[in-house]
Amino acid sequence: MTTDKPSMHERIAKFRAAFPLAESDGQLNLDAKHRAIIDKFHQEGGIESIDFFNIRNWAGQSDLGAPSSLKFLFSKGNTNFRNTFAYLAAKSFRFNDDKALRASLNDDLWIVKNSAAYELLLKNPVSETKGTTNWISDNKTSFNMRWLRYIYIANQILTKNLVQSNSVWVDIGSFYGGLQSIVFREKPDSKVILVDFHHQLLRSYLYLSEMFPNANHILDFNSNSEIPSGSFVYVPVQKFSELRQLNIKLVSNFFSFGEMPRSVFEQYRDSEIVKNAENIYCVNRFVSSPFFDRTYDTDLNVFDYEFVSHKNNYFDVFPMHHYQSVRRSIFGITRFRNTSSSYFEMICSR
User: Fold this and answer.
1) Which among 65, 99, 216, 232 has most CB atoms closer than 10 A?
2) Would you say residue 1 has pLDDT above 50?
3) Is the CB of residue 261 less than 8 Å from the CB of residue 34?
């Protein structure tokens, strides 16, 4: 028998009680991108400003978009001034941006279908998840750019048995928990640990507790805690070391290692937590900051991702968004370009 789901206000109050020093994120050694994101979070009202309308799209982070769609516009709850304006803009003065986005999305969908991940997408249409603000449909399911990325990664985790029933998965930099929700639906007995900044943990807590109200949602984890099967555990980056006693099946990081200052990245890479994990799965840039386009304020590159306790089982170019072309200003000229560095995909085992 289920109990009544706590309200948004009650969940925020519970989160505040568990993490009373949320502002301490501002004292961390951060790259410029995440420093700006946290500053923007506080400028916009902090924790109290978060709701399901901005849980996935805000301050430099988003679902990465989807082409304009009448089906989305006239779906329940989506017909409003902002979405109508966005649709008309995409059909007029943003036509080329919309066209490029559609081409990239079609490439990603082809990859999903040809990597056997499409069945997972059919079971997890993004339009049925909480807080999504844009999507497109192929008449069988729905998706957007970030969701297709999550579907591909989730399929890799599941088909390569990186997460199993009752096993522990630690993901560093989990955003709002979309990837975790896809895997957890297939492995409802797993123990999923999300490591992130306080404001991101609140987003994932609100999203995942809405999607899985009957799962265990643990906000007060410490090194002596027992994690029951079917749990989400929310751990701020400041308490990462509390995980060192766990028997971890998988440690993962997608994209954010390559955005960190070197000293912070090396703390993660060389930690006992990562060294003792059975598997490591990461997707990051070949070169974080190419000399001609200093994307992030770090000098990390692919050679830094050497996990000395593990052997490499899989290495390739990360296929999702690989052919994406976006409007960018480089050398004082604005036009459609790919990103300055592509991404690699690596899976290692101990």
Assistant:
1) 232
2) no
3) no
Q: Which of 268, 280, 269 is nearest to 350 (CA)?
A: 280
Burial of residue 7 (CB within 10 Å: 0-12, 13-18, 19+) is exposed
> How confident is the model at residue 21, as a pLDDT?
58
Q: Please tell me the pTM assigned to this model.
A: 0.91
CA separation for the pair 143, 148 (Å, rounded): 6
The angle formed by the CA atoms of residues 158, 164 and 169, to the nearest 5 degrees, is 90
Protein fold of 8-349: Rossmann fold (3.40.50)
Q: What is the mean pLDDT of residues 90-95?
A: 63
Listed range (20-24, 121-125, 128-132, 315-319) with the worst mean pLDDT: 20-24
285 within 8 A of 258, measured Cβ to Cβ: yes
161: alpha, beta or left? (left if phi > 0; alpha if psi -120 to 50): left
Task: Give the span between the Cα atoms of 73 and 86, in whole angstroms.
Answer: 10
Burial (CB count <10 Å: 0-12, 13-18, 19+), residue 124: buried
| Alpha-carbon dihedral sign for residues 129, 131, 135, 137 | positive
pLDDT in tens, 64-89: 777 666 555 556 556 565 655 555 55
Q: What are the boundaries of each domain within the chain?
A: 8-349
Q: Is 148 helix (H, G, I), strand (E, B) or coil?
A: helix
Pairwise CA distance, residues 172 & 236, whole Å: 10
